[in-house]
Amino acid sequence: MLKDITIGQYFPGKSLVHRLDPRVKIILIVAFIVMLFIADSFFGLGVGMVFVLGAFLISGIPFKMMLKSLKPIMPLLIFTGLLNILFIRTGEVIWKWKFIVITELGVTTALFMVIRIVALIIGSSLLTYTTSPIQLTDAIERLFSPLKVIKVPVHELAMMMTIALRFIPTLIEETDKIMSAQKARGADLETGSVIQRAKALIPIFVPLIVSSFRRAEELALAMECRCYHGGEGRTRLKQLKTSFRDYAALAVTAVFIAGVVFADKIDFII
Amino acid sequence: MSVIKTEGLTYVYGEGTPFCKTAVDNVDLEIEEGEFVGVIGHTGSGKSTLIQHFNGLLKPTSGKVYIDGEELWKDKSRLRDIRFKVGLVFQYPEYQLFEETVYKDIAFGPKNMGLSDEDTDKRIREAARMVGLKEEIFEKSPFELSGGQKRRVAIAGVMAMEPKVLILDEPASGLDPKGRDAILAQIREYHQEKKNTVMLVSHSMEDIAKHTTKILVMNKAKVFCYDTPVNVFHRAEELQQMGLSVPQITRVFNRLKAAGVPVNDDVYTVKYAKDLILSMLGKDNKKVER
Ligand SMILES: Nc1ncnc2c1ncn2[C@@H]1O[C@H](COP(=O)(O)OP(=O)(O)OP(=O)(O)O)[C@@H](O)[C@H]1O
Ligand SMILES: [Mg+2]
After folding, report:
1. Range of the domain at B214
2. From atom 17 of ligand 1, which residue's Cα is the shortest distance away?
3. Is B211 inside any structural domain?
4. What is the pLDDT of residue A137?
5. How many structural domains comprise chain B?
6. Mutate which of B42, B49, B57, B244 to test ligand 1's pocket (most atoms within 8 Å of Cβ)?
7. What value of ipTM does the predicted structure carry?
8. Which of A185, A190, A218 is the mutation pick for testing B, counting most B CBs within 10 A?
């Protein structure tokens, strides 16, 4: 169960997508989201889909991983779909049973929403698959650094994010371990009433919290030992540089945005 | 009948991902009741993975596991009962403590078994005695104990369930030499007193040689051999080739033999070696026992 969580999972690689400047990748993702939201026809969405699937192909990430990233949001997709199908009552009725009315508009809207969410998830998981968490927070720090002028602690926030991301897999592993250890002592996590199950979580959460605090303390100590003192005057081992391929990627994305607008127009004419 | 039996047991971590890794590969094993089995192998050879199959914490990717002749995973509702039969103490078990007091923490297992308060109390006291915990600390919080004491509490927590098979994953790692000897001696005492099966994973050949009746050597996810200490240490060269050592004293005797001294080659504990040498020198003519 815990193994299905793919947030922050990075697949090292050397593809074009991997080598893009992470700042540019974040900008591209924002552009992609804009693309999805200005699209108001299936044609427009189709163009967006082609864009993200193309990027996925170039990245060389196995398609299985894409499906895996969709698995956790399945309930959300089903919920959105059903909600739209059941509650949109305008348009041509295609099926009717007692108080349930399904209209053509309901079905198309449901489909539209589901595709939009799927595209969103694919795009953002492509970002985390091809960008290491360190690069990602680095890029975020750089992109938001103008906010330092109005005293937003950008570096500190980015550092907190880096640490949080770094510890997600560790925490998952730790939770797995503690769960196994308590199961070995006969803890029953699967059966019983809601209250019993909530109680059964105590033997897992207490050690988890205790060890998280221990880790945090150790980490703080280790950082202090290396004279960490915040972002002031800190230099970097890896400088972010934009190159020709970043501009090319931006240009391609711009073309696709234009494509979405154009596709919507075509749909309108048809 | 063997208490633990596996047939073609295979386990793959992260199956179907780019990171998949076969940690246990086609293992056939039969462990008789009452043995004290030492499990040894290089880091990453699959020891921890293997033992987690014996109480149904991991489900084999393929192959079968039988406990007391009963096939695991055939009926999922039986798993919990099997976990009471096969007690598993994890590596660094002190991180699983969670109760307010030591007493309550040791009681967690027996309580889960549905024992009465009276029986639970009896078992807690006995388990605490076996691991050398004083009753004064029963009302202390487990978080204010020393590392070695925490370890003992965690081991007592599993011992109190009185499992038919007790498996310990490196119970002595990270302890000082005195603490390590004490814990291992207590585990041996437990084995002798209860006459049940004990399995001990360790990196130390000396510890394993000193305490066990059978040795299971793992190498690269496979079982290299499962035999008595004498037979295992006979294969010193093969063991050394895969990065494992034989006990120091065995090496000494192998060298003596190579140098032409007529000594036995089944020596793997210091005590036996001492007695043997004394008798050879004619200083001690009582019969030499291991
Ligand atoms: N949760 C996991 N996910 C993926 N791979 C794992 C996991 N746990 C162990 N492995 C891999 O399986 C192999 C066997 O691991 P295992 O922990 O069983 O070794 P071990 O013999 O107990 O080693 P050690 O002596 O260091 O404790 C290792 O190569 C390890 O990298
Ligand atoms: Mg291990």
Report:
1. 2-231
2. B48
3. yes
4. 85
5. 2
6. B49
7. 0.85
8. A185
